[in-house]
Amino acid sequence: EPEVTQTPSHQVTQMGQEVILRCVPISNHLYFYWYRQILGQKVEFLVSFYNNEISEKSEIFDDQFSVERPDGSNFTLKIRSTKLEDSAMYFCASSALTSTSGAKNIQYFGAGTRLSVL
Amino acid sequence: RKEVEQDPGPFNVPEGATVAFNCTYSNSASQSFFWYRQDCRKEPKLLMSVYSSGNEDGRFTAQLNRASQYISLLIRDSKLSDSATYLCVVKTSNTGKLIFGQGTTLQVKP
To answer: Which residue is closest to B32 within chain A, CA to CA?
Structure first.
């Protein structure tokens, strides 16, 4: 079964450093997303991406965050200057479509990258 | 009011029990509804989509009441392997943004 893959599984960084989280979405999917989950809290939407553009972003996704699809397979989330409160599990997801109901509407999640900011 | 609200539980039930989870959502324009399952420190995995007509998948039944903005999940004949957190998820926009509830924790005991 196709799956979304994320690397690394765990990233430890110092406050103020830049990190890049990497994702390989399912190959025939067109819509890509990043979510985060702080320990003990709910999953929160960060950003959606389609056709090389951000289609929606949340208040969390400030100027410190950026996303990129550098090639035909990877989708990355960059945090320019990490803060302690950026420590969380970051999930990448992808879907074939968004505007219809049914199987192509479903978002599939990667196993996540645990980011620890010290 | 929270966008998606769930009772966090935990629900502790014996094997074989029937358990029901409820969820309410605040945006009447919400388009799609899902139940995801999340095991400890793992990614959310789709359990089932939820349709207005109600739908069933084996031991799992989901119901949607658009007028009341209410979603439910019924699990029959609980198994130990059903122990997890169940996430009520709503899609409101065409950009695909998913809004998650806090989750309801289920612990099935022998």
So the answer is: A101
Residues 6+ apart with CB under 8 A from B98: A33, A35, A43, A45, A93, A107, B34, B89, B90, B91
Chain A neighbors of B47, CB-CB under 8 A: none
Q: How many helices (H) and strands (E) does chain A have?
A: 0, 11
Q: Which residues in chain B come in under a pLDDT of 50?
A: none
Of B91, B95, B92, B94, which Cα lies nearest the Cα of A55? B95
Q: Tell me the nearest-neighbour CA distance from A41 into chain B, angstroms.
A: 7
The answer to whether A75 touches A23, Cβ cutoff 8 Å, is: yes
For residues A77 and A34, what is the distance between their CA atoms, to the nearest angstrom? 8
State how far Cα A4 lies from the chain centre.
Answer: 11
Of A45, A48, A105, the CB nearest to B32: A105
% pLDDT > 70, chain B: 100
Put simply, whether B80 touches A (Cβ < 8 Å) is: no
The SS3 assignment for A85 reads: helix
What's the distance, CA B17 to chain centroid?
17
Cis, bond preceding B44 (omega within 30 deg of 0): no
Give the C-alpha distances (Å, rounded to integers) separating B82 from B4, B59, B75, B77.
Answer: 22, 11, 9, 10
For A64, residues 6+ apart whose C-beta sits below 8 A from its C-beta are A79, A80, A81, A83
Residues of chain A with confidence (pLDDT) below 70: 98-104
